Amino acid sequence: MTDYTGHVAIYKQSQWFPVPWKGFNGPVYSIIKHQQQQSILFAGQFDSTGDGQFFNENTAQTINLLSSATISAGNSANFGDNTNPASVVCSQSPWLLQDGIPGYWEAQFNSPVQPSVFRLSNAHLDGRNTNEFNIISLGSNQYFQLSYTDPTTGQLISCTDKCILSNDPTIAYQDFTVTTPITTTGIRINIDSWFGSSGGLSNVQIFRSDLSLQPQPINDNPSTISCSNTPSSTASTTGTWSQVFSYQTYRNFLIATFPATELQSNNVSVTYQPYISGQGMYNVYATTPGCVGTSTCDQRTQVILDISLNPGTTTTYALDQQNAADQRTLIYTGPITASSTAFQPTIQMRVSPTARVPSSGLVSIAADSLEFIRNNTGTVLSSILNYYPLNNTWLPLPQQLPPSSTVHSLQSHFNRIYIGGNFKSNTTYAHLVSFDFDASALIPVQNTGLNGPVSTLLLLNNSQLIVGGSFNNTETPLENTQLNHVAIYNLDTNTFSPMNDGLDGPVKYLYHSLLDTTTNVHLSGSFHLVNGSNVYMNAQWDLSKNQWVPSSSFLLGPIATQLALGNGQALYLGEIQAAQTYRANTMASLVQDQWSSSISSIDPNATVTTGVFWQNTIILGGSFTLNNVHYLIAMYDGTTWSGLFDTVQGEIHTLLVMQEDVLAIGGQFKGTLGTIPITSFALYNLRQQRLEQVQGILRNDGSPGQVNIIRSRPDGKSILVAGDFAFAGLLNCNSICALGSDSRQWRQLGDNIQGNIKDMSIYQDSITVVGDLQVAQTPTGLAVLEDFNADAWRASSQDILSTNSLVNDGRGQFIVSGRSENQFYLGSWNGKELNKIDTNLGPSTEIIQLMYLPIQSSPSNARYPADSDTLLMAVGHLDLPDFGTASAALYDGSTWYPYLVTSTSNGTSGSIHTMFTLSECCTPKSVRRYLSVPAVILISIAISLAILFFLIALAFIYLFFKRRNNIKYEPAPMQEWKPKHRPSSLLAMLDAAQLTDSAFLSTTSAAAAAATAAAGSSSKQNHLAYSSAVDGGGRRGPSVDISDTARLRNSSGMSAAGASIPFSALLAAALKSNETTMASDASPKVYYAKFPFEAREFGELAFNAQTPIVVTDTSDDVWWMGYKDDGSGNPISGLFPSNYVSKAKPF
Q1: Per-residue pLDDT band at 193 (split at 50, 70, 90)
Q2: Where are any strands of DSSP class E within 209-311?
Q3: Residue 820 DSSP label
């Protein structure tokens, strides 16, 4: 587009065209159509049009500091790359002062100029920036009076000796306008204070309002560099010229002197080419230095000025230079066409062809300045232009806003427009004003407007003007009312009203959704809270109900506008960082193809790390605030939310429902509920709503361990707890431990594994774990325990050091994910080998959870595994080929399909930590395959025969019960209960020991009987008693009453105190028994306690660490039977956990 000056254009017929006035010199923020005026209004921050009809003289001309000024400084940095003050011209590199010392930057001009605007950029180098400064005129030392717009408040500020330069790195430059013009030969920028260790600048640009061209002599290295976007005016010379100082006017100008004989053949000339920013009427003046001051009166003659200021038109003006004093001559008055690539106004001065020969025989031609002065008789332009397409005219408003105003938004209402922006006119209006076309005047609103800039306006219902921006009240404050960044202005009553408490940040955009049939107003900007709830720069207000409306979708980033696309679709435009169909803070549930997040409405700031279903209740682990109380667990029964663990600090990582109504809780936490202390593991009875006592999970130093995963054995006898820990209660149990479902006792699984287990799978009797592990001191990412009773773990033979998750297909085949050599991998594990799966996932992929998902249909018929009805689902952060990032995706063996895409509150891709289902899910099921017809016939015959045999069996059963009912039976007497420990076994044990103690030998029968006593109950007595077994002669020994619990000495085991066999005899016999056989009554074994054990129920044997125990029954994996010394030398028996004792004698 020829001579297009920018900021506005017309698009039609698949092409861009300039507007008739060719553009503006600043941005356009609002364009509206005014129906009654049949015009289009443009608003923004501009004061010039591209055709030059309206322009800003202050920034019309730039001073070329490289060619027409000498740059210097005071107290520049002494070393480094930022010592040269001239480097700030054209922003070559920053210039700095010495640390901690004030200084200045200076420019001395070759000829007097009248600066109009100083454009300054701060240093922004290692925290060094200028803070306070001033600008003076060299020679007079007079301060320039300046005005500028504060970038923070948007207010127009005036300053002289203390001006402020912003240190905000996002601000490229600031313009400081000279309010009182000064003509000067140089300027100095004094830097008085700074940010960081020193001040400095990175760019200085000086504009002039006067258009005066002063020719300069040609030197050896003339500078033609100009860094301004605005072209500079030039005055070039041909021939030989020298600079002469006039003692009459005390300034320099150019003189060309040559012999009179060359009067007609010389090539001496000066070409003036002014940059005319806007077409208009001008007066052009030529200044001719007087001849007296240079003693050249006898050398002067006449010159010709060829004036070409409009295309195709050239005029001449004859100028006699034989003037004794300086002379300023009007050489042209009339229109001048604006400078462009097609035409450049030019005036050339040369010797007149009819020049008289001077009497001295020498000719001197003087060259001084030309001035171009515009006749400012038209209307000024300040940020609003009204265009009338019918007659193709464009005009400013009859009454304009103050200079340097910024208009952000316009709204039309009948024959008025409402103007919102950053402007202020004394006490008349501020930031919001209306213009009445009938009155051709600006009309203030209530209380003269608002006390801060207005960014956006929206007119609804033809009477309610919604106003958004950076304000909190009207300019003349309303009493008992706050208008925090948004307000409703009623055009019928001319009054402001708030939107409840408003917003906590500026509103940048307002719009009404094209898809919304309600009266909801959509607001966008830099705000984050609405009624105390988090929002993400977007909010909705219902005008009919006067209340905020929560959004069901998620949009992050301000939305500027929208376009209707048809079919119920709209295109949103703005600073959008992320957009999702559903808004769900940290937790989302899918029910009948509809996503929702019930926790978001209760606690918008909730954090969810895990979850589980119990009956119709959702149980979540994380961080929740319910009724101003903080909980680690939240439960939702479909109607209300309740919390648990309000007195516990830490994190919940995993949940599992066991035994139908007991919640197993794992994580890294510590606290006390009621009187029960818990550490990283807890059991909560959901039905009885009480905490059960269980020993916690600890690290080596006694701090809370970390539980990452809890799984249940297929038979339900125990649950497996895994993570990063060293102890389960007092039991040394590295990384993984089993808890009996009924006994609530911990048991170690293998003894050669440690590290951080991140996931676990149980297949039949084997356990497979993944994580950052060590097996027998060897690092690995995967380990297997062949069965629950195995002594040692087996590590993967492949070199995989970090794994995150695994999933079992129900047939012993596993899919494993993790990282190897900092690269993502996905592999299949068959229990022996790990084979990599080529998935084409990007390097940023991080899979946290794997699961199989049954599906009904997909884009292809492929399934994974191939003979199943499932696809593999990966959860976490997935970098999918040809798509981007997803939080969950499905894999069919060759192609990934995005399933869920999430976003975070800062605009980055989200990541899902876990997914859980209402029903147990999922292992692949074989695809149904139809049998052949013969096979179906054979199966049908087999089923028929089975039914026939079943009917015959029923007949026999009927006859059996019929005969049995006819026979009278007398119940046989119940057999007497006998103890498990037979006296013959003990006698054999004692005989084998070949004891020589006479006391022991004399009481063998009685002692043996007492040592093998079994429990019984007496219907006549209310207490327990133990009877001795039958002695060798068939006689019963004495009964021993142990109802006195004081004698149990903190043990509920069975005592043999009434007998005469000492514990030392039992111990000696056990020490001599055969080591190769299992412990039994006939062959007892000696074990030593590794940890103290406290009896909690009757029949359990309590002991302290290092206590010797004679073990007589090891047939059960968990509970063994044995004897210990009751403290008086007599044996006492009972049950105790097997993992609390060891054959090795402790130190």
Answers
A1: very high
A2: 211-213, 234-238, 242-246, 251-259, 269-273, 280-288, 302-310
A3: E
**Locus of tokens 């061209």:** 213
Structure confidence by residue, pLDDT tens digits, 122-171:
999 999 999 999 999 998 999 999 998 888 776 778 899 999 999 998 88
Planar angle of CA 502, 511, 485, nearest 5 degrees? 25
Q: Is the peptide bond before 291 cis (omega within 30 degrees of 0)?
A: no
From CA 812, how far away is CA 796, in angstroms rounded?
15
Tell me the C-alpha distance between 434 and 443, whole Å.
5
Q: Which residue has the tokens 């017809």?
A: 933
Residue 738 CA: distances (Å) to CA of 727, 735, 790, 1092: 12, 11, 13, 19
Rg (CA), the chain: 48
In a 3-state reduction of DSSP, which class is residue 664? strand
Query: What is the DSSP code (8-state) at residue 689?
Result: T
pTM for the model: 0.57
Distance of CA 520 to the CA centre of its chain: 28
Provide the token pair at 560: 């500027």
Residue 305 pLDDT exceeds 90: yes
Q: Are strands 529-530 and 1108-1113 parallel, antiparallel or unpaired?
A: unpaired
Question: Over the stretch 484-509, which tens digit does the pLDDT of each residue have?
Answer: 999 999 999 999 999 999 999 999 99
Which amino acid would we find at residue 310? N
Is there a contact between 1120 and 1135 (Cβ–Cβ < 8 Å)? Answer: yes
Q: Largest Cα–Cα distance of the chain, in whole Å?
A: 171
| Residue 568 three-state SS | coil
Q: Crossing angle, helix 1004-1011 and helix 983-993, to 10 degrees?
A: 120
Q: Which residues in 774-787 are b (16+ Cβ under 10 Å) and which e?
A: bbeeeebbbbbbee
370 within 8 A of 233, measured Cβ to Cβ: no
Residue 236's Cβ-count burial label (10 Å; 0-12, 13-18, 19+) is: middle
Q: Under the phi-then-psi rule, with left for phi > 0, alpha for psi from -120 to 50, and beta for the rest, what region is 138? A: beta
Report the DSSP beta bridge partners of residue 1111: 1085, 1122
Within 10 angstroms of residue 393's Cβ, the number of other Cβ atoms is: 12
What pLDDT is stored for residue 61 in this prediction? 78
Please tell me whether residue 336 adopts helix, strand or coil conformation. Answer: strand
Looking at residue 798, what is its pLDDT? Answer: 66
Sheet holding 242-246, edge to edge: 242-246, 251-259, 362-367
Q: Phi and psi at residue 67, in whole multiples of 5°?
A: -105, -20
Residue with token string 């009972």? 1134
CA dist., res. 1051 & res. 1102, Å (int)? 5
b/e string for 431-448 if b means 16 or more Cβ within 10 A? bbbbbebeeeebebbbbb
Reported confidence tier of residue 996, pLDDT bands at 50, 70, 90: very low
- The answer to whether the CB of 812 falls within 8 A of the CB of 768 is no
Q: Which amino acid is at 578?
A: A
Relative to beta strand 814-820, strand 61-62 is: unpaired
Higher per-residue pLDDT: 961 or 508: 508
Backbone angles phi, psi at 58, to 5 degrees: -65, -35
From 273-287, 322-336, 416-430, the region with the lowest mean pLDDT:
273-287
Query: Distance (Å, rounded) from C-alpha 356 to C-alpha 116?
Result: 42
User: Rounded to an integer, what distance in angstroms lies between the CA atom of residue 50 and that of residue 394?
Assistant: 12
Are 476 and 459 spatial neighbours (Cβ–Cβ below 8 Å)? no
For 584-589, the CB contacts below 8 A with 24+ separation are 584/554, 585/534, 586/622, 587/611, 587/620, 587/622, 589/618
What digits encode the pLDDT tens for the residues 833-876? 888 888 888 888 888 889 888 888 888 888 888 888 889 999 98
> Rounded to whole angstroms, how far apart are CA atoms 830 and 815?
9
Q: Is the distance from CB of 100 to CB of 177 less than 8 angstroms?
A: no
